[in-house]
TrEMBL record:
Keywords: Signal. The lineage of its organism: Bacteria, Pseudomonadati, Bacteroidota, Chitinophagia, Chitinophagales. It comes from Chitinophaga hostae. Residues 1-17 form the signal peptide. This is DUF4136 domain-containing protein.
Amino acid sequence: MKKLGLIMAGFAIIAMAACSSTKVTSSWRSNDAQQLQKDNKIMVMALVPQKDRTLRSQMENYTVSELRKKGYNAVSALQTYGPQEFGKMTEKQVVKQLQGSDVNQVMTIVMLDKGRERNFVPNYSPYGYYGFWPYYSMWSSRMYAPGYYTYNTKYQWEGNLYDLKSGQMLYSVQSQSFDPPTTERMAVLYAQQVVKDMAKHQLLAFSR
């Protein structure tokens, strides 16, 4: 029975790891959007609550890194302007400041939602096939044993790519992150998934 318990615990750990994920749920590209030119500057700008400044830095930096791997001139808004870059500025003033930094496109990354889910886990597992007595013994000992609650964190993200000169939205992507092990790991996976999706929509040129 002890060996059986270790096996069941292993299955539980694998299942929990599989549930942790970051993935694109939907995306859209404008019919008028042209493939981005590598000599253009793309500014990545994450919009998250002030208390999550570290997360903002991670989301911007890893997205910038992935775009640079593709050969694009991407920069972080936080590193360029600091945490209070636009404050009470008007739209005209913001656009003028960005254009003064030779920015051609702006990619916003917005945290739409962050919530915690509470799930009850019964003290048994339906997985596996055993002989009569191991099966009967397992269920008889666990059937009335108390279960426990787990708490998972779910993030909802939306990324939009804008052309600064025309003001046109070129691309939009929605994604979710479920129970990431760390915010840094979530930022890495987000950047990889979104840049991969941009390439899929042929917004990015093939790397040579």
